[in-house]
Design goal:
Order of helices and strands: HHHEEHHHHEEEEEHEHEEHEH
Number of helices: 11
Largest sheet: 5 strands, antiparallel
Distance between the termini: 61 Å
CATH class of the largest domain: Mainly Beta
CATH topology of the largest domain: SH3 type barrels
Strand content: 15-25%
Strand order of the largest sheet: 6-5-4-3-7
C-alpha cells in the first residue's frame, strides 16, 4: 500500500498561516480550505512527524504555532526526470558506505521522497535492477576517527593521530594540520601538514588508529588551495617539484586516450600512424607509473628520465617474478 502523502499545496497553506502567527486550528483551516477537520489534523501530524515541523498547540489561544521561527517547510517542485536523477544519485551512494555520511545521506533522500507532491510519482524499483553502479572496493573506517577528523577540519583544529603504514605493526604519532579530506579509488585520505616531518603528508583514514582533536588552531597557508594541491587528476599525493611527462600511446590504445580528459592541462599530439603523444605536468610519479603500466605495451614513457627508470624497474621485477613460476 503506498504511503499516504497530503496535497502539498495544502501544506504550504497551513505553513503560511502558522508563520503569520494567526494560531489557526483544525476547524478554521478546514473552513478556509473547504475540507474536513480530520484532513487538516492528518496534515498537521504529517508535518510534525514526517517533515519534523516544530508545531505545538496553544491551549489559551486555541490554535497551532511554530516553536522555531526560522523553520522552513520543504518546498519542492520536481519533475519526473528530476526525480529519476535523485534516485540515480541515491543509487551511487555506495562510495560513502564505509563512512557515517552514508546513513545520513540515505535519510535525506528519504525525506526528499516523502516531501514530494502527490502528483509526482515514479516507481524506482526498476532503477535498482537496470541501472548499475560498480564502485571501487572500499576500506573500513572507524566512525569515531571519522568524526574527530571531520571536527578538526570543520573547526580548523590540529589533530594528534596514530598511524600505521601498509603492513606495519608499529604506529607513529603525528601532530597534523588537517587540510583536506579526499575520496580516491575506494579510500578516504587526509591531506595534512605534518609537524613531525614539517611537510605535506597524506594519510589513509583506514590506517589511522587513533585521532584526538587538539585545542590548537591552524590556518591554511596562502595559496594552499584545492586547485594547487589536487589540480593533478592523476593522483592525490602532493610534492613541491613538478615533472614534465610525455607518453606515446599506440594506434590501438589512442582512441581510448582521446575520449577522456586525464589531466586538466593535458596536451594531445596526434601522429600520422594513428598513435598519439600525451603531455602534462605532475608533482608525483608513482601514481602516474601505475597508470601507465595499466596500458601494457600500448604506452611508452618518453620523459622524464625518472619515470622511465621507475617503469623499467617495475617491469624487470614483474618479469623476474613470472620467470620463477613453475607451470
Amino acid at each position: 500500500m503506498p504511503k499516504f502523502k497530503p496535497q502539498y499545496r495544502r501544506l504550504l497553506f497551513i505553513d503560511k498561516k502558522l508563520k503569520e502567527k494567526l494560531y489557526p486550528n483544525c476547524t478554521t483551516l478546514a473552513q478556509e480550505w473547504e475540507v474536513s477537520a480530520k484532513t487538516i489534523q492528518r496534515d498537521i501530524e504529517y508535518m510534525k512527524y514526517e517533515l519534523d515541523a516544530p508545531i505545538e498547540y496553544d491551549s489559551l489561544k486555541h490554535g497551532y504555532y511554530y516553536t522555531e521561527n526560522r523553520f522552513a517547510l520543504p518546498s519542492i517542485n520536481i519533475s519526473e526526470s528530476d526525480l529519476f536523477a535523485v534516485f540515480i544519485a541515491e543509487h551511487a551512494l555506495s562510495q560513502f558506505r564505509n563512512t557515517p555520511v552514508y546513513s545520513k545521506l540515505r535519510s535525506i533522500f528519504s525525506k526528499i521522497q516523502d516531501s514530494l507532491p502527490v502528483k509526482t510519482t515514479i516507481d524506482p524499483s526498476w532503477i535498482h535492477d537496470r541501472i548499475l553502479c560498480f564502485q571501487e572496493p572500499v576500506t573500513d573506517i572507524d566512525v569515531n576517527i571519522w568524526d574527530k577528523i571531520a571536527k578538526g577540519i570543520r573547526n580548523s583544529c590540529r589533530l594528534m593521530i596514530k598511524y600505521a603504514g601498509p603492513g606495519q605493526k608499529n604506529m607513529t604519532q603525528r601532530k597534523v594540520d588537517p587540510y583536506y579530506l579526499i575520496n580516491h579509488k575506494g579510500e578516504w585520505y587526509l591531506s595534512t601538514h605534518c609537524h613531525t616531518k614539517d611537510s605535506i603528508r597524506t594519510f589513509a583514514l583506514s590506517r589511522i588508529k587513533n585521532a584526538e582533536v587538539l585545542s590548537e588552531k591552524f590556518v591554511l597557508p596562502p595559496g594552499m588551495n584545492r586547485k594547487k594541491m589536487f589540480g593533478d587528476q592523476l593522483g592525490i599525493i602532493w610534492k613541491k617539484d613538478f615533472y614534465d611527462v610525455r607518453i606515446r600511446f599506440t594506434a590501438e590504445v589512442a582512441p581510448y586516450i582521446r575520449e577522456r580528459l586525464w589531466h586538466p592541462r593535458q596536451k594531445i599530439m596526434n601522429q600520422s600512424d594513428g598513435s598519439l603523444i600525451l603531455e602534462f605536468k605532475t608533482n608525483h610519479l608513482n601514481e602516474v607509473k601505475d597508470w601507465i603500466l595499466s596500458w601494457g605495451t600500448g604506452a611508452t614513457v618518453l620523459k622524464p628520465p625518472e619515470l622511465v627508470t621507475k617503469i623499467r624497474i617495475s617491469l624487470k621485477q614483474s618479469l623476474a617474478t613470472y620467470n620463477m613460476l613453475k607451470l
